[in-house]
Amino acid sequence: MAGREDKALDERLKAALWFSVGKIVDEETLKLGVNATPQFIGALTEMIWAQIGNVSEDLRSFAKHAGRKIISTEDVMLLARRNEDLEAVLRKFLEQETTTKSSAAAQRSRR
Fold first, then answer.
1. At CA 101, angle to CA 96 and CA 102, rounded to 5?
2. Measured between alpha carbons, how far is 48 from 25 in angstroms, rounded to an integer?
3. Of 11-15, 29-33, 94-98, which gets the smallest average pLDDT?
4. What is the mean pLDDT of residues 84-105?
5. Is 16 exposed, middle or buried (CB count within 10 Å of its CB: 0-12, 13-18, 19+)?
6. Which residues contact 21 (CB under 8 A, 6 or more apart)?
7. Taking the mean position of all CA atoms in its chain, how far away is CA 74?
8. Inter-CA distances, 36 with 22, 39, 59, 107, Å
């Protein structure tokens, strides 16, 4: 029964991904003045779905190797190490989040 539920969840997630990819493709094709076929959107969705699967397996493996059951920020940064631009964006985001959380904690302690 769990297998059916997992398959149904996968199908719903993939349908949501298809919808989101379709919306983004529609917005971009309008800007560019070009057309995209449903086959293109389907192929792009399949490629993204496969990439999500690969990334999730890598993250799971990194956490397991570190002796954890939960994926951490360090696992994500390890995954991004080969893409310098992505790593820079993620580091900047982490720094902003850390600063925001520190500021909020400082304000709470003053009260």
1. 95
2. 13
3. 94-98
4. 90
5. exposed
6. 41, 44, 45, 48
7. 15
8. 9, 8, 33, 50
